[in-house]
Every structure is written in structure tokens, then in C-alpha cells.
Amino acid sequence: PVALYMDDAQLEYGKILMQAVSATDAKGIRDGGQWLQSVYNEATNQGLTDKELAKVLASISSSPGIGAEQFRRDLAAFAEEPFLSWLNSIEIKKEGIKTPEDLILFILKNKDKIGIEELFFKALAKLINSKDIPVETIRSAMAIEKAGKWWILWLVAGAGIIFLFIFWYKRNNKDKKKE
What we know:
Layout: H1 8-26, H2 32-45, H3 50-61, H4 68-76, H5 83-89, H6 100-114, H7 117-131, H8 135-142, E1 144-146, E2 149-151, H9 153-178
Antiparallel strand pairs: 1-2
């Protein structure tokens, strides 16, 4: 059996993510991109870093083993201008981007400079929804091995976010169909 290990900081990350999701849900946001952007903003306002959030966002928007170039193509399929042009102009090798997490982190660090934040989260929300990634795949992608022990926090927090996002998306689609 693998021993589970979570330190106080990891427990705090999970609490912050859940609080960010709850605060976003309380706002009644119906658009997927705006919802994801709000969760991001709430989490960063409460102390999570772009690197921590990039890890979670990558694990719920890509399959294990996918490279940065494929992830860029997947994200570009849902991107709108001017984000699409900027995304395609990123020199992945030159920037040292190797994984979806690296690409998301690069985007998060540069989003304010080029004004693509809203378009990025809109494209990412559509990508997450289109992937229909099985829960087991998400769990394995989110489990991070650290010093021989599993870091379960990202698994729990990410699975919760995925569940809420899927629930929210399906509820909104039902509301739109009724209209």
C-alpha cells in the first residue's frame, strides 16, 4: 500500500480551491470561461500561485503524456482572436515549454501583458468540456508523487472542480434548451 501524505500547505491549497469554487458558484456565473476565470481569480486572491493553478488546470484539460505542442493545438481549436494568433506565435522550444502545465503557466504569467485573460479561460473551459476525460484518467494525472508518497490534495481538489464544472455545464445546457 502507498502511504498518503499531505502537509499543512497542501491541505491549505485544497481549502483555498474549494473556497474559490464555492465563491464562484455563489456569483451565479453561467458562462464556462467566466466561471473558470472567477475560480482562478478567487484562488489567486486567497494565495495560490500561478504554478499551483497551472498544475490543476493542466491535469483537468489534458490527458497524461500529452506534449506541449499537442496541447497548444487542442487549445487553439477553441481559441478566438487575438488569443489564437498569440498562442500560435509562442516559440515553445525557445521558451522551454515541454508540458501542458508549462504552457498554461506561460500563458498565466503573460496574460495581463497582452490582454487575453478572458479569451484564454473561455478556450480552456471549452477544451475541458470537449475532452470528456474519464475520472480515472484525471485521478492518475492529478496524483503527484513526492518523495515516494502520493500527493492526494490535487486529486481531491481537481476532482471536485471537475465535478462542479461538469454539473454546472450540464445544468446550463438544460436551461438553454428549455428557453
